[in-house]
Design goal:
Blueprint (H helix, E strand, L loop, with lengths): L17 E4 L5 H13 L2 E6 L3 H13 L4 E5 L8 H11 L5 E4 L14 H28 L5 E7 L10 H21 L5 E7 L11 H10 L10 H13 L6 E4 L22
Parallel strand pairs: 1-2, 1-4, 2-3, 4-5, 5-6, 6-7
Helix pairs in contact: 1-2, 1-7, 4-5
């Protein structure tokens, strides 16, 4: 029946649904939290270190008339996961939506990458969200909640960067985590999708934007403009309402579109036989 279809329903309402967004104090996570609030959700805003920024997001959401709670938790620390879930269920009452958004990167030549940097990225970007999803999924199954889980992923799961190897590996692994959870949870009526984000104007990726702009101007890639956090937030709503599970929603401005248009080649000389 339609009333039992959860996020697979024909007409999905966000009113009164409770969402947990990791890494929600800034950047993409902040925009996703605000967009969910605009759609009608109550929010648990997770942050790791910047409580002031999280409080600002909380106040913005409360100004919309929605409930917003904040909780400090390091997604990369598995011991913090129960605190996240407990805060959401006790303060909001339930969890219908989980957005796995928190992420970090470390920049170094792959030939000089340290195990410490590699482990830090893997803990936050892959191991943490994988096992947080496991806990939330089990909660949803036990409570018979037909919820939704969305992963903020990246074009870096397919396009390697030799100075951000751990980040690329973590996102590739997390994409497969998303797909495997989708396969397992479909029978439970729980939707699981991912967002394939491109270069986005955030603290994490802003420094890379000029390289992408130059590549687009030369015709090596297609990108009308760099992404904004709000673009990823809108893609997240699409991932929640899409009649599908286990898929990637593109949000990269065309970067993943196959294209080779060498604009510097103004003339071509044909072969003369």
């Amino acid at each position: 029946m339609e009333s039992d279809s959860g996020f697979f329903a024909k007409n999905i309402s966000f009113d009164g649904k409770n969402a947990v967004v990791t890494g929600a104090s800034r950047g993409i996570g902040r925009s996703i939290a605000l967009e969910l609030a605009q759609q009608g959700c109550n929010l648990l805003i997770n942050y790791n270190s910047n409580r002031e920024a999280a409080t600002e997001v909380q106040q913005q959401i409360q100004a919309m008339g929605r409930q917003a709670e904040i909780v400090q938790a390091d997604v990369g620390n598995l011991a913090d996961h129960q605190k996240l879930i407990q805060a959401a269920t006790e303060r909001l009452g339930s969890i219908e939506i989980l957005i796995n958004n928190a992420g970090i990167t470390r920049v170094s030549d792959i030939l000089e990458e340290t195990t410490e940097d590699y482990d830090a990225v893997m803990d936050t970007n892959l191991k943490g969200p994988h096992f947080l999803t496991q806990k939330v999924a089990n909660y949803m199954v036990q409570q018979k909640i037909r919820g939704a889980i969305i992963f903020t992923l990246s074009i870096s799961s397919q396009a390697g960067s030799d100075n951000r190897a751990a980040y690329c590996v973590s996102k590739a692994g997390l994409e497969m985590s998303m797909r495997t959870f989708a396969g397992r949870l479909a029978e439970e009526g729980i939707k699981v999708n991912g967002i394939e984000a491109g270069v986005t104007d955030t603290d994490l990726a802003r420094v890379r934007i000029p390289d992408y702009v130059e590549a687009a101007e030369k015709g090596y890639i297609m990108m009308y403009r760099p992404g904004e956090p709000e673009d990823v937030a809108r893609a997240t709503i699409a991932a929640l309402t899409l009649y599908d599970t286990g898929v990637m929603i593109p949000c990269a401005g065309g970067i993943r579109t196959p294209l080779l248009n060498l604009r510097s080649m103004t003339t071509l000389t044909t072969n003369q036989g």
